[in-house]
Amino acid sequence: MKMFLISDNIDTCTGMRLAGVEGVVVHERDELKDALEKAIANKEIGILLLTEKFGREFPQIVDDVKLNHKTPLIIEIPDRHGTGRKPDFITGYVNEAIGLKL
Questions:
Q1: Dihedral of CA 72/9/14/82: which sign?
Q2: Domain limits for position 68
Q3: Any idea which GO molecular function terms this record carries (predicted)?
């Protein structure tokens, strides 16, 4: 299985390409939908990397793919500017998932 990147900037795409991961750069909602459809249709892609910006700007599109498709596994990654998440993101995620405050 292969990894594939859908990024919002060329620098992240270039860095991943140097690591052997192919990808595309998109900026608009329709471009993202088209890139996701092509990635889902390609059965060789097992892991789909998305920059975090897409999860923030188009959560309904990303969530729809996550909920309605078993493959590929979608992972949101920070871009070259770093993460947009709060420093305690993982603790908050665990608290929400198990219902206990850590």
A1: negative
A2: 2-98
A3: proton-transporting ATPase activity, rotational mechanism
Interatomic CA distance for residues 5 and 76, integer angstroms: 10
Q: How many whole angstroms separate alpha carbon 37 and alpha carbon 7? A: 15
Q: Write the CATH number for 48.
A: 3.40.50.10580
Neighbour order of strands in the sheet with 22-25: 22-25, 2-7, 45-51, 73-77
What is the tens place of the pLDDT at every residue in 16-35?
899 899 999 999 999 999 99
| AA letter at 41 | A
Per-residue pLDDT of 52-91, as tens digits, reads: 888 888 888 888 888 888 888 888 888 666 566 666 656 6
Phi, psi of 51 (to 5 degrees): -70, 150
